[in-house]
Structure formats: structure tokens, C-alpha cells
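User: Structure with magnesium ion, C-alpha cells only please.
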Amino acid sequence: MYRNLIFDWSGTLVDDLGPTLEATNAVFGIHGREAMDRDEFRRLFRLPYSEFYEEHLPGIALADLENHFRKAFAESPVAVTVLPHAREKLEWCREHGVRCFVLTSMDRNTFEGQLDDLEMRQYFEATYSGVVDKREVIGSLVINHELEVSQTAFLGDMIHDIVTAKHGGVASVALLTGYTHREVLQAQQPDWLMADLREFREMLDQHRRNS
Ligand SMILES: [Mg+2]
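Assistant:
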């Protein structure tokens, strides 16, 4: 089945909704916009984040927003944690020789810090961070690592992840552990819609037993 898995990071392997919401509201506050609550943020936030900010804070330079966001994110007292079942899934991949990659919009410094702090670096053959529009990178990722698209899946928690998977010609696995509600992901018709990484691992185990 899948020999190669490309993972989104936030909402797929780690839970950073708390500090992300705080940092977003800090950016909104600087520009006089009202804060969002958790539910509103989950309904409205989308990638590429450049489009989200253009919609809610039109006309403000992205680099300026990014600087404020990163500072507020780094200062947030709310910890980023590994999502339940994520480490087990990555251990499973290592055990079964499934190659793992990361493709994330998170800025490189923040991402690299989390890779080390959470002791996740050893699971990945290569990581791609700071990617605002993942569609622009999925093709070269597949080519660079000579991935057979029929044996490759991209796992993520947002519409942009599903769109990116389809753009790259790989399977799309939508997960409900992150920022986006079920019906919103469902509407994009991903190949798989899973509650979490345990459900995905069990599906692959089942497939192995049957083949
Ligand atoms: Mg995500």
C-alpha cells in the first residue's frame, strides 16, 4: 500500500492550536482587529495563510505579520505537544520501512526547534518547512526522493493539504486532529478521512494482514 508518507506538521503530528491562536490574536490586536475564539479560528483559518491574512487584515505586508506572529508564538506560555498516536505511528513506520517526510507551512526556525524539543527528528528522511503554498513544493519533493506516487500519501488536517495531495498526484489522508471540522474536510473528498493516526495505522495493519 503506502511506502511513503508525507506529513503536515501542525494539527497532524503536533498540537499547536493554543499558541497559534494566541499569536494570531496578538497580530490582530496590533492592527486593531477583534480577537477570535477557538471555534471561530477553527472555522475561519486556512492555508495558504497569506490568503487568510489578506482576508482579515487586508493590505498589511506579510513579512510584518509573520514577524509579529513568530514573536508572539515564541512567547506563548501554552506548550506545543505531540498529538496522541503520532509517535506510535512514526515508530510503526520505522519498524515497517515506510519512508516519512514533513511538508509544513511553519517557519523554519520554529519548526526546527520543535523537531528537537519533541525528539522527532529521527523519524524523517527529509523535512520541508516554511512552505507558504505547499502545491509549489509537493512535485519537487516527489521527484527529489524518487517517490512512486501510487505508493505515496500526504496526511494533513486542512483543505490546503487535501488540495496539495491532489495537485501532487498522491493519495490524500485528512485527519480530524487539527484545525478543521469534519464536514469541511469531507467536502473536499479526500481519499481517506480518519479520526486520528491510530485509525490510519490500524487501516494499514488490516491491509497488511489481508495481502
Ligand atoms: Mg496542519
